[in-house]
Amino acid sequence: MKNYILKLADDSLIMGQRLSEWCGKGPYLEEDIAIINIALDQLGQANNFYNIAAKLFADGRTADDLAMLRVEKEYLNAQLVELPNGDYANTILKAYFFALYQKLLYEHLSNSADEDLRAVAQKSLKEVRYHYTHTETWTRVFGNGTEESKTRLKNALENLWEYTGGLFDEVEGEENFVELNLIPSSKKLHEEWKSTISEDFKKFGLEIPTAEFMQKGSRKGVHTEYFGYILCELQYMQRTYPNCVW
Asked: What is the three-class DSSP state of 64?
């Protein structure tokens, strides 16, 4: 169960870190604020999951230690969230894929037999429902906009699609937790996700890619070449000034 919690925490941490790179660089002020608010929500969710994980590990490490002081191969996030932001169409489409995943996941976890997981999911669900609404709206605007916006959205789809399957890769032992009604089946979650994607894509003017290839390694500590650079930025303060606090 520890690694399952870590994969949820790592997803949110790295997604929040990536989206925060837009601070002060958004296409206009209101959207700059909106995307950074989504980043802050992700960091808050990560903190909640790391606190649960710290309690399960019970080895003296805190949520901060788990977030900031592990080595690259110990992070279990999906590779999708660590990809570069790219242009705004790419960022929004990636955030849309992830928001839909979290929305469906938290809807199921809101009924988990685990009290801590259930509480975090119920608290976070209203946030990710907004994330989904926001990114779905922007994706629809891009898909039904100018030739430039349509081209950028299609390019983003080509860049990102092969990484989406990694969201649903499993850590060891997940099937046992499903039987105990602690977590939803990742396979069934993927089916729900693809069904919603299919309906949404009709509104976006997009077609689901026919290629079945998906990148491997998510949830196993295998990362893209971009991940080391993220950790360098993320861990700089704790590595340089151990045990520093605000």
From this structure: helix
